[in-house]
Amino acid sequence: MSTTDVRRGGAAPGPAPLPVDAMAEPGSAAGRLALPQFPFLGLLSEGARRELAGFAPATAPPCKPLLERGDAVDGAFLVVGGSLRIFYLTPEGREATLYRVEPGGTCILALTATFNRSSYPAWVESGEEGCTFVVVPNPAFRRLFDGEPAFREFIFGVLSGRVFELMLALEAAGSGCGCSTGPGCSGSAPATGSPDRAAPLPEERDRPAVATGPGGAPPPRW
To answer: What is the pLDDT of residue 172?
Structure first.
């Protein structure tokens, strides 16, 4: 979670492990995890389903900063509505989108930071339509990962899917064709309306420069 808003409110600075009420308003029961978006729910034990059902959703308004580089992350974001935009800052102060998380997905950088007990390496804001999400705290996340094969398969599926998308994006960038169709690419851009989940190059846009990391150092370029 971004510490910016907390500090503006006069609280002591310093990262905290995902106090959801500080970054977004609690959502309604309609925003809770649902089987159509997360099919693995139907394969969990009764206890695991009850535990996940107990985590209330949070709703963020459009384009609200949620995480900054260096923040502590202590759990997983499961998106149930809207989207999250994950981005980094170039040395010139431009935002470059790494990927977006849509309903039924989760943020892989938050997962890796939780697994490694490391700080978050990028920035996150809610999408242009806002975002509704459920945070699964680290203790519950690890219990589910260790004890629920369906949940573990979901996490591995998310991680492997992002790796595959990255490979396609790198291949498209290297070929200079501007598409992400993978092996056998014809060299033409995707047809209008065709699925193109992996953008061939990061999306960049101008934003007022913000702190780029400890000591003002620019973030690494992925």
So the answer is: 80
Give me the domain span that covers residue 104.
4-9+20-182+197-208
Helices then strands (H, E): number in the chain? 6, 7
Give the side-chain half-sphere CA count within 13 A for 153. Answer: 9
Name residue 89's beta-bridge partners.
95
Contact in structure between 141 and 114 (CB atoms under 8 Å): yes
The predicted-structure confidence for 186-222, as pLDDT tens digits, reads as follows 444 444 333 333 333 445 554 443 433 444 444 433 3
d(CA 29, CA 57): 7
Q: How far apart are CA 82 and CA 62, in angstroms?
A: 9
CATH number of the domain bearing residue 53: 2.60.120.10
pTM across the whole model: 0.66
Task: Quote the DSSP letter at residue 103.
Answer: T
The DSSP element (H or E) to which 205 belongs, if any, is: strand 203-206
- Domain annotation covers residue 86: yes
Nearest to 154 by CA among 58, 62, 48: 48
Tally of domains in the chain: 1
Region of residue 186 (left: phi > 0; alpha: psi -120 to 50; beta: else):
alpha
Whether residue 191 is contained in a domain is answered as no
Phi then psi dihedrals of residue 30, to 5 deg? -65, -20
* Phi/psi of residue 97, nearest 5 degrees: -70, 130
What's the rounded Cα separation, in Å, for the pair 70 and 65?
A: 14
Range with the lowest mean pLDDT among 8-22, 47-61, 125-139, 181-195? 8-22
